[in-house]
């Protein structure tokens, strides 16, 4: 082995060379112009380069694609902007010809039929180890350009060795991916089980011996005879109180509830001013009624403000157990009850729950004693399920780390291929 002189490569085999990326690939940019309609749209994802519908409104959506650039099969694609974001895709080797954003960097192989998979796995290894992010600078718009990419040194064995290494990587990674898929499938089953436990408890109660009665509401079905069915208007009051000044605490709504937003680190969507945000008191409910599929709801633990586009409401009877109703509302999100009452243009990402529709929705209401028992039962049961999910998520993290280290050791020659 010999020292490569490159921090993120380390030692490489004596018979390997180091070559600059620009010596095997050339930077090109070919704008589609009026020919854009002749090409498929492509997207760079964490799972590689995929075809994407031109009408897909997810993410940034241009009015037209004439400004997009043409990518050829076997081209490298790099997204080297906003490098402070460590969770987005960065590197792709395109199996297709098509269009990508003009902000991406394209490198084409210098030789016809050039074998690029080994180099691709090396470049992915740099992504896994955050090399691009660390080199991009600390600015808000940290980035690398085509010149920077061309200067990257690549460990380069013989073509036969490259092919052998890629075969080993792909065989081993397939096995690891199957283990990850198995763990992920178990997590999904646990999440489904958790939701069924919550739904059963808030609609059927905890005592199976109690006589049941029709609720008169399709998605609720039968309920215990001592449950009442009431609409949200009779139980809650929407409140919107604009703060009128810059607040100390800004709250964001997530699928895990309300969290304090770190405005100093520019995380998520930012506002120039928060003076028009609405006040949230401790104990208030707040929900994202603009995203009825993946939006969240929570009970605030803090005094603060949240977006004026969200819905803040409070329970009318102080004796009622808020956590019980939170479980009901979470069930209505997951079972798409709120979604069914929404209005707007779902295909454009504008599907909201108007206040009058929200107020008209019926929910099961047990006695205060039963509310407390159900909430306590679900707190305990959900904690048990969440612990099982966490264990499996940790297994997935370890498998992903193993996969990343495996690729690094192969593409830098530290693991022999025989």
UniProtKB/TrEMBL annotation:
Q: What is its EC number?
A: 3.1.21.-
- Transport listed as a keyword: no
Has the keyword Secreted been applied to this entry?
A: no
Family of this protein? Belongs to the type-I restriction system S methylase family.
Under the heading SUPFAM superfamilies, the entry gives: DNA methylase specificity domain
Highest taxon, organism lineage: Bacteria
Please give the name of this protein: Restriction endonuclease subunit S
UniProt organism field = Candidatus Protoclostridium stercorigallinarum
Q: Which terms are listed as keywords in the entry? A: DNA-binding, Endonuclease, Hydrolase, Nuclease, Restriction system
What sections of the protein cross the membrane?
Answer: none
Molecular functions (GO terms): DNA binding; endonuclease activity; hydrolase activity
């Amino acid at each position: 082995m010999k020292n490569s002189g490159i921090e993120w490569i380390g030692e490489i085999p004596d018979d390997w060379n180091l070559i600059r990326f620009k010596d095997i690939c050339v930077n090109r940019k070919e704008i589609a112009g009026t020919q854009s309609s002749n090409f498929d749209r492509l997207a760079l994802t964490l799972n590689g380069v995929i075809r994407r519908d031109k009408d897909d409104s997810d993410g940034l959506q241009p009015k037209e694609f004439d400004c997009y650039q043409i990518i050829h099969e076997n081209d490298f694609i790099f997204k080297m902007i906003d490098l402070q974001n460590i969770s987005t895709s960065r590197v792709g080797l395109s199996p297709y010809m098509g269009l990508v954003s003009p902000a991406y960097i394209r490198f084409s192989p210098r030789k016809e039929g050039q074998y690029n998979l080994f180099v691709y796995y090396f470049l992915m290894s740099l992504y896994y180890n955050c090399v691009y992010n660390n080199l991009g600078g600390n600015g808000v718009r940290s980035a690398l350009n085509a010149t920077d990419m061309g200067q990257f040194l690549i460990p380069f064995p013989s073509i036969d060795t490259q092919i052998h290494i890629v075969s080993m990587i792909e065989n081993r990674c397939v096995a690891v991916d199957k283990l990850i898929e198995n763990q992920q499938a178990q997590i999904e089953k646990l999440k489904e089980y958790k939701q069924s436990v919550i739904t059963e408890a808030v609609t059927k109660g905890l005592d199976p011996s109690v006589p049941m009665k029709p609720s008169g509401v399709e998605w609720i079905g039968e309920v215990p005879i001592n449950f009442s069915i009431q609409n949200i208007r009779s139980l809650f009051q929407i409140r919107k109180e604009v703060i009128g000044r810059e607040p100390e605490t800004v709250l964001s709504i997530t699928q895990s509830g309300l969290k304090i937003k770190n405005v100093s680190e520019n995380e998520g969507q930012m506002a120039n001013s928060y003076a028009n945000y609405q006040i949230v008191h401790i104990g208030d409910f707040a929900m994202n009624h603009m995203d009825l599929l993946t939006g969240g709801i929570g009970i605030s633990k803090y005094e603060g403000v949240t977006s004026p586009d969200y819905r803040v409401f409070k329970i009318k009877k102080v004796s009622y157990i808020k956590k019980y109703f939170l479980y009901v509302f979470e069930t209505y999100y997951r079972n798409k009850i709120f979604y069914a009452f929404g209005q707007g243009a779902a295909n454009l990402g504008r599907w909201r729950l108007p206040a009058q529709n929200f107020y008209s929705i019926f929910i099961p209401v047990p006695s205060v004693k039963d509310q407390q028992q159900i909430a306590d039962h679900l707190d305990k049961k959900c904690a048990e399920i969440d612990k099982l999910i966490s264990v499996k998520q940790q297994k997935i993290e370890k498998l992903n780390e193993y996969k990343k280290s495996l690729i690094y050791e192969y593409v830098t020659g530290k693991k022999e291929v025989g």
